[in-house]
Amino acid sequence: MRIVALDENSKKDILADLLKRDPNNYTAYSDTVQEIVDTVKRDRDAAVFSYTEQFDHAVIDASTIRVTKEEIEEAMREVEPGLLEVMKRSMKNIRAFHEKQKTYSWFDSKPDGTILGQKITALSSVGVYVPGGKAAYPSSVLMNIIPAEVAGVEKIVMVTPPGRDGKVNPVTLTAAHLAGATEVYKVGGAQAIAALAFGTESIPRVNKIVGPGNIFVALAKKAVYGHVSIDSIAGPSEILVLADESANPRFVAADLLSQAEHDELASAILVTTSMDLAKKVSEEAKQFTKELSRSEIIQKSLDNYGYILVADSMADALETVNEIAPEHLEIVTKNPFEDMTRVKNAGAIFIGEYSSEPLGDYFAGPNHVLPTNGTAKFFSPLNVDDFVKKSSIIYYSKDALEAIHEDIEAFAEAEQLTAHANSVRVRFEK
Q: Where is the active site (predicted)?
């Protein structure tokens, strides 16, 4: 991994480099995605079936697109019992964490005759996109469905690409069933997003779409936003490790590569105050890369977006962390909890040398759907609030309104909205 002395110029260059990975920059695909979205909106099922055959090489129709109870039972029999138990334990942790996020309606009644409040209502339907084909991502299934289920969403519709045999990966399907998906459809890509946004003869329209996917899925979500709500436009994965001389270089290198193996566009960055640690981590990363199964992807990721930044002080290092606003942040320093208090921007923060990033991906409980590409400056991890909406409640008695009606009228007239003022004034005409 390249070692760079951290200063204002190098920081600006790296930030500009990282922003190149933003899905919003991939405009070359936008027209293709928009055409798919428009065609599905117009031709509905026919377009979905055609695109599925074209892109996934699977033949489906109205009688086979929805996963049946028998297919779920078959899938669960195929999953190795040990993995099934691991998924159940992971689910328990995820559900327990998200249960603590629930908010409730509240009402504040005062003696002056006013009642103000907030009513919490779960979304009635949510679509969950899960990548598919040969790969299986049961952790993504759990992380997207469980918060919706905890929030009280009645209809949770999952879509995922089928294999060439027209079937859903059994591990993915088992996770969906355990987590609480109410319906599963065999469709992926931009066509799946369009189907969820507008509805087809077979696939119901939903209120919100969540879940990760490739660039076509990301751009399709962007294209349908406004017709439905979405979680975010997710970019490639990233990890930043903040470390000092006390860190174990072998642990740090292993953690950096855990994200580099995702994608050639993934980012792995170490920010440290120790040149000695920087050199050791670089060497450990080199050795690990030779041994790991996805070494080619890892090497390209490190060549493109891997950095070891050496800062003069922990204050400079923390400033850089907040500028990058990483998806995953590990703090491996002498005083990690103290340093954590100075972090303003990060999707998930892992504290100490035994809290490696995969702990959050699979098991600890906090959601692994996180803001990327610096959006941790204003976005949060996927959570229960993403699956509810809030309505304000306002009640004033006659006496309560009479006491302040002239204030409202004056405000409205200052904005030259005389009908607003009149709406209040007529209630107190003599």
A: 327-328
Task: Tell me whether residue 57 is one of the annotated catalytic residues.
Answer: no
* Residue-range domain boundaries for the chain: 3-22+235-365, 25-230, 399-428
The 238-243 sheet, strands edge to edge: 3-5, 306-310, 267-272, 238-243, 328-332, 348-351
- Would residue 327 show up in a list of annotated catalytic residues for this protein? yes
Return the CATH class of domain 3-22+235-365: alpha beta
Query: H/E element holding 219?
Result: helix 215-224
Do the beta carbons of residue 156 and residue 177 sit within 8 Å? no
What's the CA gap between 201 and 60, in Å, rounded? 14
Q: Which of 327, 330, 357, 409 is catalytic?
A: 327
In whole angstroms, give the CA distance from residue 393 to residue 395.
7
Give pTM, 2 decimals. Answer: 0.91
Binding-site members are 129, 191, 214, 237, 259, 262, 328, 361, 415, 420
Cβ proximity of 29 and 340 under 8 Å? no
Cα dihedral 229, 235, 236, 242 in deg (nearest 10): -100
Question: In this structure, what token pair is assigned to residue 367?
Answer: 């959601």
Residue 414: phi, psi to the nearest 5? -65, -25
| Choice among 98, 177, 261, 328 that is catalytic | 328
Phi-psi map region of 78: left, alpha, beta (phi>0 left; psi -120 to 50 alpha): alpha
What is residue 303's three-state secondary structure? helix
Reading the block at residue 15, the tokens are 């930030």
25-230 CATH: 3.40.50.1980
Q: Check whether 24 has a pLDDT greater than 70.
A: no
Nearest-angstrom CA–CA distance, 176 and 183: 9
Kindly indicate the confidence band of residue 134, based on its pLDDT and cuts at 50, 70 and 90: low
Non-local CB neighbours of 358 within 8 Å, separated by 6+ positions: 258
Give yes or no on whether 3-22+235-365 and 25-230 have one common fold.
yes
The three-state secondary structure class of 374 is: coil
Contact between 331 and 242 (Cβ < 8 Å): yes
Annotated binding site for substrate: 237, 259, 262, 328, 361, 415, 420
Residue-wise pLDDT for 262-314, tens only, equals 888 899 999 999 999 999 999 999 999 999 889 899 999 999 889 999 999 99
* 248 token code pair: 């174990």
